[in-house]
């Protein structure tokens, strides 16, 4: 008898929430890595899929094996493939030395030193990713020191009292040292890491983030006590969180392998309701996420095709009066994203 082929390795989950690609693998107790290419950032590194090598920064929520095991390999492969810059890992201050010791042990094992940087990040402090973009650490509650992260963009905005003032006058005021602008913060992507529910998840950074990536480990009603002991989120904890978070997309990871995806989806719909649940996605629900992506592609192609027809001299009036009449999700998909091989 010919033996069966080995099972395939876990595929990367993929969700497009314009303009962000959320891709990775997140299974409770096994492996967790979530990559957002547009931010050049990786949340946790329990394994090291090839696409994550392109980003130079890992924000490590905590040091359980399923979240940190891929870190030495990630450092090593970035150096081996001569990727620019020194790779860095943002770590809770209490766990910096243990992570450094872990990396130091590889020097003896490999007889070489892999370039790397371990960066302590205090709760409520920030690390600059780009000139106007920062990742902020937020302390959460888990069985080991743990952090959540929120990527924040800062923009300058004209103060209300100067709206309608001419450009010449604004230049004159600026020359006189008058502050005519104010800085606003825009939370882009929030990542809870592993945590139990707490006030920290109701902070403005989470309430106002465009995308929230959260763990939800337990779905069975009889496992609520297990969630409390392990300091994880139970699906019932999502009820107040979904009411508080205004994110256009909420992405759930860290689902246990014992929980079937259809059952998890059923529980989410019961808690969130039919309308809100349309914006709640399971990272490892490959089938539903594939259908969603194909619908996004079809909507984009429909918009692009009708725009060409609309601009044709033979189509006065066109199919749409303006692009604002088209589905918003389809307008933000770029050619680069459409070429992604799932």
Q: Assign a percent range to the helix content.
A: 25-40%
Supply Rg.
23 Å
Q: Strand arrangement, largest sheet?
A: 1-2-3-4-5-6-7
Largest sheet: 7 strands, mixed
Number of helical stretches of at least 4 residues: 11
Question: Explain this structure to me?
Answer:
- The chain is α/β, with parallel strands linked by helices.
- It is built from 11 helices and 14 strands.
- Strands 1-2-3-4-5-6-7 form a 7-stranded mixed sheet. A 7-stranded mixed sheet has the order 8-9-10-11-12-13-14, covered by helices on one side.
- Strand 11, helix 5 and strand 12 form a beta-alpha-beta unit.
- The longest helix has 25 residues.
Short overview:
By secondary structure, the chain is of the alpha/beta class. It has helices at 65-68, 71-80, 96-110, 167-175, 204-207, 224-230, 238-244, 261-276, 286-310, 328-331, 335-338, and strands at residues 13-17, 20-27, 31-36, 41-43, 57-59, 88-91, 117-120, 126-130, 133-140, 146-158, 181-191, 211-215, 249-253, 280-282. Helix content is 31%, strand content 24%.
Chart the SSEs and their pairings.
Layout: E1 13-17, E2 20-27, E3 31-36, E4 41-43, E5 57-59, H1 65-68, H2 71-80, E6 88-91, H3 96-110, E7 117-120, E8 126-130, E9 133-140, E10 146-158, H4 167-175, E11 181-191, H5 204-207, E12 211-215, H6 224-230, H7 238-244, E13 249-253, H8 261-276, E14 280-282, H9 286-310, H10 328-331, H11 335-338
Parallel strand pairs: 4-5, 5-6, 6-7, 11-12, 12-13, 13-14
Antiparallel strand pairs: 1-2, 2-3, 3-4, 8-9, 9-10, 10-11
């Amino acid at each position: 008898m010919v033996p069966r082929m080995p099972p395939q390795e876990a595929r990367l989950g993929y969700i497009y929430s314009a303009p962000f690609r959320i891709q990775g693998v997140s299974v409770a107790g096994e492996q967790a890595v979530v990559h957002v290419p547009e931010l050049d950032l990786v949340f946790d590194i329990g394994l090291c899929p090839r696409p994550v090598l392109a980003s130079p920064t890992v924000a490590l929520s905590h040091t359980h094996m399923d979240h940190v095991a891929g870190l030495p390999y990630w450092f090593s492969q970035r150096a081996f493939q001569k990727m620019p810059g020194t790779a860095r890992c943002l770590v809770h201050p209490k766990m910096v030395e243990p992570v450094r010791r872990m990396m130091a042990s590889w020097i003896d094992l490999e007889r070489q030193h892999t370039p790397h940087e371990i960066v302590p990040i205090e709760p409520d402090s920030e690390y600059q990713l780009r000139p106007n973009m920062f990742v902020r650490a937020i302390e959460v509650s888990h069985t080991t020191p743990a952090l959540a992260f929120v990527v924040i963009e800062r923009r300058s905005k004209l103060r209300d009292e100067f709206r309608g003032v001419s450009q010449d006058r604004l230049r004159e005021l600026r020359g006189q040292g008058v502050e005519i602008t104010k800085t606003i913060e825009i939370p882009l992507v929030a990542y809870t890491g592993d945590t139990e529910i707490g006030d920290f998840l109701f902070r403005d950074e989470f309430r106002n983030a465009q995308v929230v990536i959260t763990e939800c480990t337990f779905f069975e009603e009889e496992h609520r006590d297990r969630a409390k002991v392990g300091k994880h989120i139970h699906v019932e904890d999502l009820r107040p969180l979904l009411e508080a978070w205004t994110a256009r997309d909420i992405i759930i990871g860290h689902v246990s392998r014992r929980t079937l995806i259809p059952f998890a989806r059923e529980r989410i719909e019961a808690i969130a309701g039919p309308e809100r649940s349309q914006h709640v996605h399971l990272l490892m629900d490959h089938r539903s996420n594939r259908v969603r992506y194909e619908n996004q592609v079809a909507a984009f192609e429909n918009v692009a095709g009708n725009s060409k027809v609309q601009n044709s001299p033979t189509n006065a009036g066109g199919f749409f009066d303006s692009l604002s009449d088209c589905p918003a999700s389809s307008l933000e998909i770029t050619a680069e994203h459409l070429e992604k091989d799932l």
